[in-house]
Design a protein that fits this description.
Number of helices: 17
Strand content: 15-25%
Shape: globular
Structural class: alpha+beta
Distance between the termini: 48 Å
Length: about 400
């Protein structure tokens, strides 16, 4: 593989799928932490998002690769107070990251302390209310862990920063700088504490690499997770600076740690992980979160799969093409359909408002595949029933595959 310099689109697609862990066999037996951990390390991170119409987004990527798994095992290692294996920070948006990556993000924390690389409003807040921010830090030091509303002077909800109080803004700035981090969560609410009381000492004691060295290692991790990727893909994975990424790419290519490659149909030059695998086929099936690393970069998903994908949460209902919370369906190396899903927990139903098939895909086979995925997903979510709506060109075949119910 390390001598390969020219790839077809199907080859690039299979490389990407293998790199993301879709070559492994899913099981109906619930996977424990060991397999979950390997899967997270393969991806390098889990993106966090507040949308909970189906399930919190960070739970879905491991499910897509493993099948049913023990969510409590992930919670304990991500949000528990003991044996923490994941930490929260800004990577590809807010993310859960393997603990070993903490030193590689300290350059971003240092930049935040200089009010660089963070939201402009938050930077202004930190400059203008430096004394208050320090007061909040000292309160966490004396009384943490705590949530923003438990501060002695939290302020009132107002203005920008998603309606944050001053206390929440101060804590988020301190989170950016690495002085506090997420100790655990209460529901979806961050509980903050001093980083030194959350991150294991053996991780904190790892020397902080120079920024250039850290960025180079993050590019290497992104390349391993993507398999084959453009400069933009690699930079986007951990939201890295442009100039530093280009310098890292040059060094990695010079060292033979990345191989330049041309992918047919791609306008940009690609870079290939020399250890990437390209099997003859990838047979995995999965429903994908909108925030899954395989599809979160919409331009890359279009290059790999000829799949145009836009999340329509913020699109007015009348203008939505496919639905509110739409998951692509992966089957045998292709994205063959998309399905709008909602977990109706009050009634114990997995609601399917709409289902669509991609061009040149077989409706019967796709419906059978999707029906099996929906039944398995409902069972994993603890829902008793799959209820199908009527919208979408796959809905009739899916209704038949589900036995006429819905």
């Amino acid at each position: 593989m390390n001598k390969l310099e020219s790839l077809s689109r199907p080859e690039a697609r299979r490389i990407a799928l293998c790199a993301q862990g879709f070559d492994q066999r899913r099981t109906r037996q619930a996977s424990g932490w060991e397999r979950i951990n390997r899967t997270v390390e393969t991806m390098g991170l889990l993106q966090i998002d507040s949308v909970n119409v189906l399930i919190r987004s960070h739970y879905l990527p491991a499910y897509s690769r493993l099948g049913p798994y023990d969510r409590d095992a992930l919670d304990r290692r991500a949000f528990g107070l003991k044996r923490k294996a994941l930490f929260e920070y800004w990577a590809h948006e807010a993310s859960l990251l393997p603990m070993a990556l903490h030193p590689l993000f300290r350059w971003r924390m240092a930049r935040a302390q200089r009010h660089d690389g963070i939201y402009g409003g938050l930077a202004r807040f930190a400059r203008e209310k430096r004394g208050y921010v320090q007061e909040v830090l000292e309160e966490v030091r004396a009384g943490g862990p705590l949530v923003a509303r438990e501060l002695s002077r939290p302020g009132v909800r107002k203005g920008p920063w998603w309606g944050w109080t001053d206390g929440k803004a101060a804590l988020e700035y301190l989170f950016w700088t690495g002085e506090v981090t997420t100790s655990s969560r209460r529901g979806f609410e961050r509980i903050y504490d001093l980083t030194e009381r959350v991150i294991p000492s053996e991780v904190l004691n790892v020397p902080t690499p120079a920024e250039a060295d850290a960025v180079r290692e993050l590019v290497r991790i992104a390349a391993r997770a993507l398999g084959v990727a453009t400069e933009t893909d690699l930079r986007d994975y951990f939201r890295l600076p442009v100039a530093a990424t280009r310098h890292a790419l040059s060094e990695l290519v010079e060292a033979g740690d990345l191989v330049p490659a041309d992918v047919k149909g791609w306008r940009q030059k690609a870079y290939l992980d020399p250890n990437a695998r390209c099997p003859g086929q990838v047979s995995g099936t999965a429903l994908l979160s909108p925030f899954d690393p395989l599809v979160w970069a919409r331009a890359r998903a279009e290059r790999l799969f000829s799949f145009e994908y836009r999340i329509e949460i913020y699109t007015p209902a009348a203008k939505r093409q496919y639905g509110y919370y739409v998951l692509p369906l992966l089957h045998r190396g292709k994205l063959v359909g998309r399905v709008d899903l909602k977990a109706d927990r009050a009634e114990g139903r997995l609601r399917v408002p709409a289902a669509h098939i991609e061009p040149r895909c077989d409706p019967g086979a796709t419906a059978e595949t999707l029906a099996g995925e929906l039944v398995m997903l409902a069972e994993w979510l603890g829902l008793d029933d799959v209820t199908l709506g009527r919208r979408g060109n796959l809905a009739p075949a899916l209704r038949q595959a589900l036995g006429g119910a819905g």
